[in-house]
């Protein structure tokens, strides 16, 4: 019966066995995975926009080459993730259509603008830094194709994080103006980076079930705290001021305390009303339309080839 199947499924998950595409799985497990993996894939691809914004304006040929490679990597991450989602019986076209209709989300962080070159440093350092913390945990997620995609992505992501930190280091040790630019980027990206981990655990509707199914291996708050603990010493190395006056080492907890997150801002952004939501979606839709002729040409070629074979 269905109940026996579910019990057996949960026992496999509890025994740390990976679930593979052709294995039986509860419909809700499949649905949750498609939601999370597609949101993750869309994030990788939409995330190319704020960084792509600076490719032509990178301050040197070396910086341009590095940024170009990094942005291309993000497209690759999107492809691994769309492929992982497709193993669950959905198509990439369906997933992209859901994004365009505003039915599928992507990470809140990519709705903020990159105003200066220092923002490219802050995005690599903080945004990719936060992404790694989340994704290292997901290397142990229960669904095999997702876990394997994460292993590869994490390797590339750690290069991204270091290139961002290196930009920040150059600016923080540079002129007073450069240092101010780095500080401003840190101040603007700090809170949105903390929001990347999602709502607090007691406000997170999906967490309990996703933890039970081992889709998520650590909670939103656990991961956020890891990020804060890892990042504060890095801010100190840069010699920048802390972006939150409440950031303080708590000896008893063995962690840094931090101030209150503006959850109203978070919900405003994920409901489509952040600073760049419309621009990001419009750009994605336009890029899709601009590529239509390539897909049409491929189809026409394929039809012609089939016709020739049949003749
Ligand atoms: N941005 C946009 N939406 C978010 C965010 C965020 N930062 N955090 C949470 N949400 C959404 C959830 O998707 C969910 O909405 P939905 O049910 O309509 O999908 C709602 O807020 C409530 O959140 P949770 O119940 O906590 O949702 P979930 O269990 O899915 O946890 C999390 C959210 C932590 C983001 C999880 O989905 C995850 O780990 N995803 C994979 C990582 C990822 O997507 N990274 C992309 C950014 S990094 C990069 O691309 C470089």
TrEMBL record:
Keywords: Oxidoreductase. It is an enzyme of class 1 (oxidoreductase). One of its GO terms (molecular function) is phenylacetyl-CoA 1,2-epoxidase activity. Its EC number is 1.14.13.149. Transmembrane segments: none annotated. The keyword DNA-binding does not apply. One of its GO terms (cellular component) is cytosol. GO terms for biological process: phenylacetate catabolic process. This is 1,2-phenylacetyl-CoA epoxidase subunit A.
């Amino acid at each position: 019966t269905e109940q026996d199947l579910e019990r057996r499924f949960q026992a496999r998950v509890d025994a740390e066995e990976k679930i593979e595409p052709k294995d039986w799985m509860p419909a809700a497990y499949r649905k949750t995975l498609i939601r999370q993996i597609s949101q993750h894939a869309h994030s990788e691809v939409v995330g190319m926009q704020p960084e792509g914004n600076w490719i032509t304006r990178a301050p040197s040929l070396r910086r341009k080459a590095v940024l170009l490679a990094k942005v291309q990597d993000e497209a690759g991450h999107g492809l691994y993730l769309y492929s992982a989602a497709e193993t669950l019986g959905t198509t990439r076209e369906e997933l992209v259509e859901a994004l365009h209709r505003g039915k599928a989300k992507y990470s809140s962080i990519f709705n903020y603008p990159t105003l200066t070159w220092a923002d490219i440093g802050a995005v690599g350092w903080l945004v990719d830094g936060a992404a790694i913390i989340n994704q290292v945990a997901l290397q142990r997620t229960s669904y095999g194709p997702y876990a394997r995609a994460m292993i590869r992505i994490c390797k590339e992501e750690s290069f991204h994080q270091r290139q961002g930190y290196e930009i920040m280091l150059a600016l923080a040790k540079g002129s007073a103006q450069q240092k101010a630019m780095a500080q401003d980027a840190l101040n603007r990206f700090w809170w949105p980076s903390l929001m990347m981990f999602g709502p607090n655990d007691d406000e997170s509707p999906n967490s309990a079930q996703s933890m039970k199914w081992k889709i998520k291996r650590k909670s939103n708050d656990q991961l956020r705290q890891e990020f804060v603990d890892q990042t504060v010493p890095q801010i100190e190395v840069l010699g920048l001021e802390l972006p939150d006056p409440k950031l303080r080492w708590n000896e008893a907890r063995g962690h840094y305390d931090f101030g209150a997150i503006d959850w109203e801002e978070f919900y405003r952004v994920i409901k489509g009303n952040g600073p760049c939501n419309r621009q990001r979606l419009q750009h994605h839709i336009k890029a899709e339309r601009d590529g239509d002729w390539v897909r049409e040409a491929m189809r026409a070629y394929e039809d012609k080839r089939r016709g020739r074979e049949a003749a």
